[in-house]
Amino acid sequence: MSSSSSDRLRQPEPGDFLDIFTLRSELHKGAMATLFLAEDLLTKERVVLKIPCGDILNQPILLYHYQNEERISRLLDHPGIIRFIHRQRSRQYIIMEHVAGQDLRSRVGKDRMLDLNTALNLMEQLCSSVAYLHEHSIVHLDLKPENILLPKDSGIKVIDFGLANCRLFQDLLALDIKNPQGTPWYISPEQLLGERTDPRCDIYAMGMLFYEMLTGKLPWPRSSKVAVARRRLRHDPVPPRYHNKKIPPRIQSIILRAIARHAEDRYSCVEDLLHDLRHWRQLPLAEGAGADRRPPLWRRLFPGRAVKPGRGQRKKTTALRGNPQIVGALIDSPESDYMLAEVKKQALIRSSDVTLVHVIEEESDSHVRRYGITVEGEKLMARLEQAVQTLRRCSIDPSIRLIRGDAVDVLGSLCSDMEAELLVLGKSRKKEGILRSASVRRRLEKNNPCPLTIAEEGLFLPVADLAHMQPEELSADQVLDCDIFLVDLWFDHLHFHTSFIYQKLLHPDQDPDLSEKHCKFGQFLAALETSGRWKEVISMLGPIHMRFHQVAARMAELCSHDHARLQDLYIRESLPLSCRLKEELGRVSLFLRDHLDKVPPVVPFLADTACPVTRLEPTCYGPLLGAFNLDQDLYTLIRKRNKSSLEGGKRRTDECD
Length: 657
Description:
Elements lengths: L4 H5 L7 E2 L2 E9 L3 E8 L5 E7 L8 H12 L11 E2 L8 E4 L3 E3 L12 H20 L2 E2 L8 E4 L5 E2 L6 E2 L5 H5 L12 H4 L7 H16 L10 H4 L19 H10 L11 H9 L18 H5 L23 E5 L6 H15 L2 E8 L1 H4 L4 H23 L6 E6 L2 H12 L3 E4 L8 H14 L4 E3 L7 H4 L10 H31 L13 H12 L3 H23 L5 H30 L11 H4 L14 H27 L9
Parallel strand pairs: 12-13, 12-15, 13-14, 15-16
Antiparallel strand pairs: 1-2, 2-3, 3-4, 4-6, 5-6, 7-9, 8-11, 9-10
Helix pairs in contact: 3-6, 3-9, 6-8, 14-15, 17-19, 17-20, 17-22, 18-19, 19-20, 20-22
């Protein structure tokens, strides 16, 4: 599929190509996202693509759900949790392994129930998965039959982490979404009141699942009405033996403890629940464990102590890692490119975390019909993804926030709460907003709690202007701009080289294009050579550029299925060259400072002696993730080739010499 603006807005269909995937069929179309069965064109693996809906102005939860799952999924690696696959993408979507089978909903609910041994087996598997999550500071918060897959040839798989909470990240759902999130008839009383950090919320949901497995029913009505759901804040549940008297009293005690109204009365951890499930026959028989009637009328008229919200202080938005904070006001217009460029520059200079904010102004948008807002939201969704990819290209992972209110109030409050070092402002997204934008700017300049920068088009562009200047003519600000350009150059060349290898793998019958027209590194050096003023820089970078192309030429000469030699060249020569290039770019940065009286600090990426390609992992972004993917894909292709050769019993006639 093309990555043009119109294609990014269009919802994909079966038969489309999306990056390295072919969409085969639509599996499910829901309110939050559409699921497609797809094929990886390189490894031929069947995967599932989860493509979020784009109506983010009417439903900001769509963006938050996607952003949350995309981040948390990078931390997960457990056989009882769906396997997520991370690749560079041209638009927003999540990649998961394809699992043949059905979900738990196909077997429980509406008077469909499981026998005790089957239910116990599933609960033990679920305990293993949830215990892993809690050990990694993750609370799922949306455990329900639809989110538990039952593969044909393996144990359960937990899916859907869009509402999950992870202590390693800011909980933007708690900060920006007012209503409680989750499926009303499975979430705990305290989750109804906004609690999102307590692992006992998951224990409650697991108890509800166990209840439904053994009865085919739930203790509360299946209603999405808040008033109905809030009954559990004051009332005790109907005991499961009311619906199924075959349930052993000790099992009922386990269920009722798991779904106790107050969190302190539940199991304190999943391990304790698992222990009782495995040894339920040895548990002491609690008083009233065999109850099989509804709570008496007097109990319903005079319920016990109600669950109340916690008394914790108002949640701050300060980043957990303690890094400096930069806030960028993201506007859905071409002028926002200048804002993104300034945010990227400042983030690289300060080693900052970045938050991009779009303010949804109720009054100015209220006259637009819902359909118009939907279209506008889809355009914004595409623009947001472009912004994320722009920053991730330099390994900056921004948080995206959509907040309703007055722009000045929202941005001022956010900068104060985050203790931001800098606010970068772009232009208004509305044509009639020029004067109003100036007013917002003046109000922020007067009252904003942190420094404000107005992003403008850069007057100095190193890629175009350096060739016409002498090194001693550069100002301190221009040297910093050169630093940012050098960082861009390193990441861009890493992307160029990995893309070249992928093209060879995907299109083995095509001759690879090794000309300089696709290599910005080579174009930059050619411009410097023409000027004759930058011999020192050319002497530092020229040999590495030449060596890169020599390695690429050797790769191009390999036969199409010689993946082992290709991987050897990539690991032993290509990646070390990337590290050498980073070292030389650092030397260039120091050279540019030689003539300055007041020398600005070198951008940390260029000063750092460590090379990021030596520690590639799934949590990388941008070109680094592409390099990680390439290493994994080459390993997969080699393994498949070796397996095919062994099964064939002899060497293939088309084997490379």
